[in-house]
Queue: 3 jobs
Job 1
Amino acid sequence: MQLWNKGFEPDKMIESFTVGLDRELDLRLARYDVQGSMAHIRMLESIGLLEKSELDQLLPALQEIADSIERGEFVIEDGVEDVHSQVEFLLTAKLGDIGKKIHSGRSRNDQVLVDLKLFFRDELRRIADGVERLFNRLQSLSEEHRDKLMPGYTHLQVAMPSSFGLWFGAYAESLTDDMQMVVAAYNIANQNPLGSAAGYGSSFPLDREMTTELLGFANPHYNVVAAQMSRGKTERAVASAIAAVASTLGHLAMDVCMWMCNNFGFVKFPDELTTGSSIMPHKKNPDVFEIMRGKCNRLQSLPNELTILTANLPLGYNRDLQLMKDIVFPATTQLIECLDMADFMLAHIEVKEGILDDPRYDYIFTVEDVNRLVLQGVPFRDAYRQVGLSVQDGTYRPTREVHHTHLGSIGNPANGLIAEKMHGLLAQLK
Ligand code: ARG
């Protein structure tokens, strides 16, 4: 039976089409639904819409449901529309009329909103934890390999000397930019929609400051229509944060695939972290990083998928909004898996030393040699031409000395400053 039953049963076809997969996705909201209900009924009691004795029965009953959720025993039964209905049915089955009182001044529209906000806060914190672990790994690899040179490329042509210190450190710093997006999404999620009811508020004197405080939100969504509008806005912010991290991670995965290619051979992994071929007995393939690249590419389509789903929806609640769960819920899990896998793999990465000693990289030193002439007083354009002509006529011989200040002995000069920046951002999520 539906919460909205008023004397007729909807057709079975209607039920499976409108609920579908949502029941399973809603399980991830269950603990937050109970948390939201606890705050709501405390507030109802404070404004006289529930008796103290009723609250004293409802809270332990909700706690029992919360415990069953943590034990993994909570299910949304067949024929029950969603998590919100299941919790209310359980309460009513246990406490009768008292259970039926908890929905005063509330709609499933603000109920699902508050569940989602609490859920996204936690998911963003978990994403931030994964980013932090990978960041720390990259920074320590950057320090460990700061002096090991590797080629830098532009247009995929050998360009200038780079180093493993720079390469690892670049991805660490890039993650600080992505963390800005995670923090922004967190701040957007961290606002209380409860009390907006169906999207236009309630005539009861709901104490929205009280639920804001009980649920640990930074502030309420003050305008009840804006609260309802945040369904979609929050998801798009989360999706942008996910896409930002995924773009960094996908790029890193691509580099590793390339550096693992036999024609480069810059990095390798222990045998047990590679995969094989059913026909070619010698293969040690980078499937992990290919899957990571593919998953991260797909994750970058998230903001697009949400835009296509929600662009130009009429103001107020529309059921289309439910479908955002299909898009965003699996994505947070996938991103966290990719972050954890990247950290696991990089813990075992082996990097090649002395790459630039190979004559195939001789031309990588031309800019160094131009700069050396400049330091001796030759105008840059003349020095450039002199070295260029020697490359053309085959007489160029590299001096192989690299003295960029950002390479060699100091690797990435700013690792400490970058770490401070990351820690400042992480502190905003505590
Ligand atoms: N499953 C619904 C959702 O995610 C819950 C809200 C239902 N509200 C409604 N007016 N039908 O949006």
Job 2
Amino acid sequence: MKVFITRIIPETGLELLRNAGIQYTEHREKRHLSPEELIAACKTHDALLSVGGNKINAAFLQACSHLKVVSLMAVGYDNVDVPAATALKIPIGNTPGVLSNATADTAFLLMLATARKAFYMHKVIGRGEWGFFEPTTNLGIELNGRTLGVLGLGKIGMALAKKCRGAFDMPLIYHNRHRNEEAEQLLGARYVSFEDLLKESDVLSLHAALTPETAGKFDAAAFAQMKPGSIFINTARGAMHNEQDLLAALESKTIWGAGLDVTNPEPMDQNNPLLNMPNVAVLPHIGSATVEARSGMARMAAENIIAGLKGEALPYGVNKV
Ligand code: GLV
Ligand code: GLV
């Protein structure tokens, strides 16, 4: 049994595969595989361990219907046509939970970096423009007691809310498809309509999955309803915000700042004006990039491969086949 792995992954996952007697091929080049290359590689393997946003669409799945399992080293599976996989009886696995803390840390980091213009100041020093102490310039805002609004309050959003409560005593409001009673009891979260989430949040952080319902949800009309002093944080998926509209909202001071770990499109162009704005902090999709999260993700992805190749139900499965 052989697995194709689309990137170099942490040793925790590889060791599990070796111990299970599974061979693997890693794509070790620092470039994306084209859809044709991915299909060609999978033809000679029994399973796929996919890292990054490879399109696991119906065309791919039909061309590779021999695959016994497709295991994503990611929590989000918006890049997969799950109904097509289910119809072809291909189990899809993901890695929920282990990256919640790391991703929440990233959102927290972006909130504070945005509020204090930290990334911009770092750049200014690098240009030799330290300047002198001016009491009225480079002012940020304090997060203490501000309202945190979360769209998609699940594991990651709850981890963020706990940090925000501990650090800054921030009350929590949220909007979800379904009420999160655990969060209401544990964290005093208050459920609000999407409109009220826009209107009442001082920091609005996205932790929903990318679906037709959330795609493009943050456009000019949405930003227009947010507070002028608010900060928009996206560590979920770039496709949930319209980046031109976000830039316009920042330029017109419709909102105060933005922190992005995901951009639309990815990668962000190096000349994007957002990169030069004081109230903006951007990271290159590193939400889960910690030793702890990535080794946990590699382990779970390998466990899904091992189960799938044995024809067993995946321990962390997305679909029922
Ligand atoms: C990363 O974006 C993930 O979905 O795990
Ligand atoms: C600032 O550095 C101060 O001393 O107030």
Job 3
Amino acid sequence: MKRVYNFSAGPAVLPVEVLEEAAAEMLDYQGTGMSVMEMSHRSKAFEGIITEAEQDLRDLLNIPDNYKVLFLQGGASQQFAEIPMNLMKNKTADYIVTGQWAKKAAQEAAKYGRVNKIASSEDKTFSYIPDCSDLPIDEDADYVYICENNTIYGTKFKELPNTKGKTLVADVSSCFLSEPVDVTKYGVIYGGVQKNIGPAGTVIVIIREDLITEDVLPGTPTMLQYKTHADAKSLYNTPPAYGIYICGKVFKWLKNMGGLEVMKARNEKKAALLYGFLDESRLFKGTAAKKDRSLMNVPFVTGSEELDAKFVKESKEAGFENLKGHRSVGGMRASIYNAMPYEGVEALVTFMKKFEKENL
Ligand code: PLP
């Protein structure tokens, strides 16, 4: 069997232990004689899986009782519409645009109401997080929206914006469970799970109860109403059952590792190794503003498109997968999510040093 070091931004590396456990249970989940994929979502066995997954997530993030946890489908992108459809009571929302994903979310929301772009870092190719301490928040804004970790550009909000009392909605797809967060600071935290948690398609929405109402925009489909799924405990229709099962296993893995404080320390150690090298390298250069650097996604360039292409090709041959940068920015990007071991980053840095020697 071959396992590569997979630096993909998503779908991304999962813990080997989780994959091994799932493989062992593939044909017979705990004596049921069937795979979780073949199981009724109304069965006792699946009820156990989803209930335990929710509880483990609650434990990990310390989610207060007045927040619901929803396991939904449609990936993170479906939330770009679902959020305004459910929350835009005044038909107004403020968006902080720090990358393509926030931009897409803002464009989608603009179909449903007035969208104010209250801050942006597009002037410098989204390479930094703008100052969000005193923003022109609209009095009528139903919420303030951020993409907390910008997967493509490798930036992260180190401090949440001052929303002046307005509800904060955050896309945490690419930093989900990478460090502790204070859930009470948000109205909605959501993310596609395919980076730090599980199979693509499943999306987790953590939402404060008072935001779940029947008062949604006219024409909002039943499937896109948070209330539908909150009332049915994420079992209104057939949920992404196998995805939820893997998420549950990753939650257990995280708990066994010691929880999110431990993950944060591990992630900081990995990121420090890579950023440390980038800062001293004479060939490679990190592209994100230092103060805003993500622990999860590390974009870098050589300054020469030819050398970038050579690096991507040679790194692949050496067993490092998916180091090519996003198609919109080029260069390279190493995504070092929770499941990437320190040794993977060490091996990458060793390879980069060798490449630098050979190509300077
Ligand atoms: N938001 C962020 C921050 C992402 O990185 C991505 C995908 O990479 C998305 C949203 C879109 O996710 P999905 O493909 O699940 O719709």
